[in-house]
Amino acid sequence: MRGVVFPGQSGVEIREFPDPIPGPGEVVVRVRASGMCGSDLHVYRSAAAAEPAKLLIQGHEPCGEVAAVGPGVPAQVASVGDRVMIHHYWGCTTCQECRSGWPQLCSTAEPRVPTLNEHGAHADYMKIPAIQTIPLPESLSFSTGAALGCGTGTAWGALARLGDVAGKTVAIIGQGPVGLSATMFAASLGARTIAVDIAGNRLEQAQKLGADAVINSAGTDLADAIRDLTAGRGPELVIETSGITAAAAQALEIVATWGKVCFVGIGADVTFNTRDTLRRQITLLTSWTLSTVDLMRCADYVDRNKLPVDDLFSHRWTLDQAEEAYRWFNKQSDGKGVFEA
Ligand SMILES: [Zn+2]
Ligand SMILES: [Zn+2]
C-alpha cells in the first residue's frame, strides 16, 4: 500500500509499505478520509530525519471502513464494512485514564500515537486496536468523521472543559480549523460568539459558521474592540487556539471578571502577575483533544444538529497529490485539507 512520509525540510515522499495484517484485538481500516492538521506542520518543517528508512506514515485524522478484523475481536466491537471514526491514541487499557476514555493520558505506559510512534493515516490502510474505533453515524461523511477525530473534536473538548456556554459571550481567538469549529459549536450551543483572527477570509468563514461578531485583530486594538462589543465587561469565556504568546496575553487581558480562559493552541508561554489578575476571580484551563466518550457525544451532536463540519474543508486531495497538498497547507493562509479515497 501507499503511505506518505515527511523526510524533513518540507519534503514529502509517497512510499510503498506492506499491507497491514491485523493481530489479536486489532483491525485494519481502509482509510476513506485523512485530514490535514496544523500539528502535521511541525514534523513537515522539521530538520532532515536521522534515519530516513524508519520514517512513520503521517496523518492522524483518520476515518474509514473496517477492511479486516484480527482474532478475538467481538462482532459488536468491529466487523468488516463498519464505517468508523478512530480515536487515534491507545494506552495500557487498564489505568484510570484509559478506563475513563482518555488513553492519550495513560499513566502507566507511553501512549501509542500515529505519526509519533505508530504509522498514521495518510495511507491506503491503517492498523489499530479494535477498541479505538468509534461508529460513524450513517448521515456523516468520512471527511466529517476525520475532522471530529482531531481538529473539530479538539474544539468540542475545549467547550466541554468550559462547561455551560449557553447565554454567555465566548471570544474565540484564532479561526483556523480548531477555532472555526469552536465558533460553530459555541454558536450552536446558544452562546454569543466573537471570532478573532488576522485573516479576513477566515473571519468570513466564521460568520458563515455562526459567529455573532468578528474582529480582525491585525488592524484593531483587540481589547478596545471587545470592550465595545460587551459593554465594557469582556467575554465570560475565551478560547485561545493560536498558540501564540501575544494572543495568550490578550486572552487574559480581555476576559471578564469571574470569566474562564481555555488554552488550546500549542506553544504559547502564558504568564501573568497576580496583581493584575487576582481581583478578577478568573479561571484558567488547558484542554487537549477529547475522550472516546466525548468523541461519540460530539458525533451525535453534529448528526442531530446537522452542523456543516464538511464546510471546514476548503481543499480535497488524493494521496498522490500529497506533496502539492502540503505545499499549500504550509502557507496556513486558507482553510483545511483532507485526503479522500
Ligand atoms: Zn491534529
Ligand atoms: Zn493506561
Report on this structure.
Helix 4 packs across helix 5. Strand 12 (about 260-265), helix 9 (about 275) and strand 13 form a beta-alpha-beta unit. The strands form three sheets. Strands 3, 4, 5, 6, 7, 14 and 15 form a seven-stranded mixed beta sheet that branches. Strands 10-9-8-11-12-13 form a six-stranded parallel beta sheet, with helices on both faces. By secondary structure, the protein is an alpha/beta fold. It has helices at about 40-45, 95-100, 140-150, 150-160, 175-190, 200-210, 220-230, 245-255, 275, 290-305, 320-330; strands at about 1-5, 15, 25-35, 60-70, 85, 125-130, 135, 170-175, 190-195, 215, 235-240, 260-265, 285, 315, 335-340. The protein contains eleven helices and 15 strands.
